[in-house]
Amino acid sequence: MTVKTKYEAVIGIECHVELKTRSKMFCGCANEFGGEPNTKVCPVCLALPGALPVANKEAIEHMIRAGLAFGATIPAFSKFDRKNYFYPDMPKDYQISQYDMPLTLGGSVGYWLEDGTLKECRLTRIHLEEDTGKSMHAGGGDGRIAGSAYSLIDFNRAGVPLMECVSEPDLTSAQEAVGYLEALKRTFVQLGVSDVKMEEGSLRCDANVSIRPAGSMKLGTKAEIKNMNSFRSVLRAIESEITRQIDVLESGGRVVQETRGWDEAQGVTHSMRSKEEAHDYRYFPDPDLVPMEIDPALVERLKATIPALPHDRFVRYHREYGLDPKQATQLVDNLPLAEYFDACVSASGNAQLSTNFVLGDLSRLANETGTPVYASPVTSASLAELIGLVEAKAITSKTAKELLERMWAGEGSPKAIVEKEGLAQTSDAGEIERFVAEVLAANEKAAADYKAGKTNILGFLIGQVMKASRGKANPALAEELLRKKLE
Amino acid sequence: MNELVTRSAAQIARDVNGKRVSAREITAAVLQRVDETDDRLGCYLSRLNELALDCAQRADRRIAAGETLPLAGVPIAIKDNMCLRGTRTTAGSKILENWIAPYTATAVQLILDAGGIPIGKANLDEFAMGSSCENSALGVTRNPYDLSRVPGGSSGGPAAAVASFQAAIGLGSDTGGSIREPGAFCNVVGFKPTYGRVSRYGLIAFASSLDQIGPLTRTVEDAALAYDVMAGHDPSDSTSINRAVEPAANALREDLKGLRIGVVKEFATAKLGPEIDALYKRAYRELADLGADVVDISLPTADYGLATYYLIAPAECSSNLARFDGVRYGLRVEGDDVGQMYERTRAAGFGPEVKRRILIGTYALSSGYYDAYYVKAQKARTMFAQDFRRAFEHCDLIAAPAASSPAFEFNAKSDPYSMYMMDYYTIPMSLAGLPALSVPCGYAGTPQLPMGLQLAAPLFEEAKLLGAAHAYERATEYASKAALAV
Question: Can you tell me the distance from the alpha carbon of A305 to that of A240, in angstroms, rounded to the nearest whole number?
Fold first, then answer.
């Protein structure tokens, strides 16, 4: 047993996602990324004396939909609490959050790994809170607080609705953690509850990582990893932390409970603060906001708005249609294309050919022309028609490719083009024999090689027949006639 | 004294709407009265002469254009914990000494829209924490009936301003008695509506679940007038109640026939001394003389009011006052790092009583103590509400003292507990969110100083409460039986 396999990792993820709403969580300011600093602010989100919060209904509905998408329970009652701590970019010096009665409880996130393995991670809860402003440290110090002369704060982000998704410690590797996060991201985007742009900071996550002897049920001491700004850094940070903890244990040490920051440049985590320095947040129910009673009718109405989810799509594509995990993922991550694909599969009944065309020739054309497949003149119905022609052997696959280009150019439906141009596949033996004779006459050497035992040259000769017939010849018949002539 | 300043708000509104006098004339007279008296009384922290005259001109123009304004030309003293755009709004604290509010509180806006004239921002105990106005960091306010005594608090500034004819309506805020007690000390009506009836938007928070804006006036009719203007749902305040408001001005009555008024057994006034005991017994008799059926009721939890209040209010204040950190507005005392800047700013900016309550509240909310203190206090609060609900099965209104003594001398209450005891009779109603008021009910002590009778009603029964207080006031007219010291 190697050192690596002697231990297993236990990982839980806490992930903050900014909600996509028209206005901020507790005031009417626009919820938009960026802009001139401190232009999207008002007495409420600046915490001026006397200002009061009013909860954003759209954000609450987003939360309920997010919970429902993962099969969470939506409790009949929920409330907001104050999380008290001082921080310069948090205007009230408390954050309105949810402590013991979050909007959603439980549920689980189905995700998949690169090889298509399906996994599941249970959710503890998703709760609703507000974002902080952003500090910028200036006057030396290269943007870091240490060495800077002063700090500037932009409150445009202060009060943006934020959902915090807390997972159970069901993840056992960095790859699983990333798979889980990707599933969250895909689902939130599909639900329209968030844009999930990590580069804009609209998804931020912390990982609780511990290790234990493989097979043990007892949890080890965890470290909380912060400052991971991309899925790639999540992967690297967790891998590095697992290795660090194994090294600590193997050298006879003990893992201490602490918060560690990921250093992207160094590729290691650094201790930030230990448990002893942990905050006492003095949570208590926010007396400025009345408890929420969630109407079951609202929950039912919201349930009806939940679309086909990425995970269900992936399972269908991969397990049912037999797409490889990469193809399936490619489709799942491009919703309009996936919908186009689904429409074509249901019209043609042929998932394999639909996949080949959509991810093959059509995607190539899309790349070449810059027009997305679903916006091109090739409708899903006309693609299904083309697939029908291929299935009926009415055209060869070579003709199909040519047709596709002409359909893309807007020449109309495949049947119409075939009829107009006489491109239908021919199985007329007399006609094909003429092409065979022509090809053998022009390729005497190849014919001689074949006769001398180099039978694999047959493929070349078949290709020549197809070419001579402009792709119309039935390839099986062409092969049969060639063999007859040569033997 | 110019007779114009002595008119009630209702009278002024009638006269200005009837074009018998202009808002400008009233305003000029009141501003002159302030000039003549306020150096001695110290009611106002900021005077708003220019704004007042602008508002008066606007009111006169609107009336000339045919509008009728419920508060046309009525001079208003605004407690300085309410935001009024463009004016210094201090909460009586060094930490906000030079802060100019960039927006206006909903209740203040309603008063201005109704034609009210803002005369000035009136003094208060710092962040409304106190019962004498002595906790103001920015000025001393004196009782207009005896300059050696406090006006009560925390709404001492507006109470004294109304009593001394420097305004007809004072806007106060009441968390545990901060309208009712100064009302009693200054011989005026002090009315706290049901929690949530008047929007708190723009009221600098002390204890969010208890704070409520209400009027201080020289007559019950004026209290009803101001209430009718301010009450109602505000979408900017989630705790404001979305429920129809019965106009109180239409409910004023001349007798108490058919009303059962409960006297709280646990509030026995004998412990307040024979003179005050006799005064309240007389008041209860006067209620009966007006036709009320005066009955004994019990509030078994009454004695726990103070303990409950002094956990909940400090807990909320410890969080509400966190925002005064020197980062965005108000006082900043620089430090070597942000932590030191916080410490120095808050050490210099807050007075001792505010610090005491922040400490108590922080402690009560801290992990390990939360259940024993905050959670238990919330449970006690539920018991108060239940006690009152049961009591109101036997009566329509409750009568009680508004304060345990008349106004005391400056520095008389040196330990915090004896100051907290001033609110013994008002806190239970606050904890239950009930509408309650104090109305002048006679004089006690040497020299003889005003006392107030507290009346309380079930939730949302402001109209019934004001109606009954009106009958008592009309029959007794105690307020008019003493002379001002200014």
Answer: 41
Q: How far apart are CA B381 and CA B388, in angstroms?
A: 11
A interface test, pick of B83, B90, B212, B238 with most A CB neighbours within 10 Å: B238
Write out pLDDT tens, residues B406-438.
999 999 998 999 999 989 999 999 999 999 999
Rounded to the nearest angstrom, the minimum Cα separation between B202 and chain A is: 4
Name every chain B residue with its beta carbon within 8 A of the beta carbon of A46: 328
Closest CA to A179 of A319, A323, A329: A329
CB atoms within 10 A of CB A465: 21
Structural domain range at position A456: 429-486
Across the interface, whether the CB atoms of A94 and B322 are under 8 A apart is answered yes
**CB atoms closer than 10 angstroms to residue A221:** 15
**Exposed/middle/buried for residue B61 (C-beta within 10 Å: 0-12, 13-18, 19+):** exposed
CB contact at 8 A, B210 and B245: no
**CB-CB contact of A72 with A126 (8 Å):** yes
Place of tokens 């497949």: A373
In a domain, A178, yes or no: yes
Whose CA is closest to A238, among A180, A178, A196, A197? A178
Separation of alpha carbons B80 and B98, rounded Å: 12
d(CA B322, CA A450): 91
Q: Which residues pair with A95 in a beta bridge?
A: A83
Chain A residues with CB-CB distance to B329 below 8 A: 48-49
Q: Give the pLDDT confidence of A37-54 residue by residue, as tens digits.
A: 999 999 999 999 999 999
A102: left (phi over 0), alpha (psi -120 to 50) or beta: beta
Residues of chain A in contact with residue B362, where contact means CB-CB under 8 angstroms, are: 282
- Specify the residue for token string 């909310």: B365
Query: Is the domain of A272 the same as that of A405?
Result: no
Does pLDDT of A420 surpass 80?
no
For the question of residue B178 being annotated catalytic, the response is yes
Give me the residue from B81, B322, B324 closest to A84, CB to CB: B322
Q: Which domains does chain B have, with CATH numbers?
A: 3-253+402-481 (3.90.1300.10)
What is the nearest CA distance from B319 to chain A, expressed in angstroms? Answer: 7
Chains A, B: CB pairs < 8 Å: 100
Shared-domain flag, residues A165 and A215:
yes
**pLDDT (mean) for B180-194:** 98
Question: Is A258:A274 a contact under the CB 8 Å cutoff?
Answer: yes
Which of A82, A88, A289 is nearest residue B319 as measured by Cβ atoms? Answer: A82
- Judge contact between B196 and B432, C-beta under 8 A: no
Check whether residue A355 and residue A235 sit in a common domain: no
Q: Clarify whether residues A232 and A285 are in a common domain.
A: yes
Residues 6+ apart with CB under 8 A from A428: none
Active-site residue, selected from the candidate residues B154, B173, B209, B430: B154
B322:A51 CB<8 A: no
User: Please, what's the b/e burial string for B229-239 (b: 16 or more CB within 10 A of its CB; e: otherwise)?
Assistant: bbbbebebbbb
CB contact under 8 A, A288 and B235: no
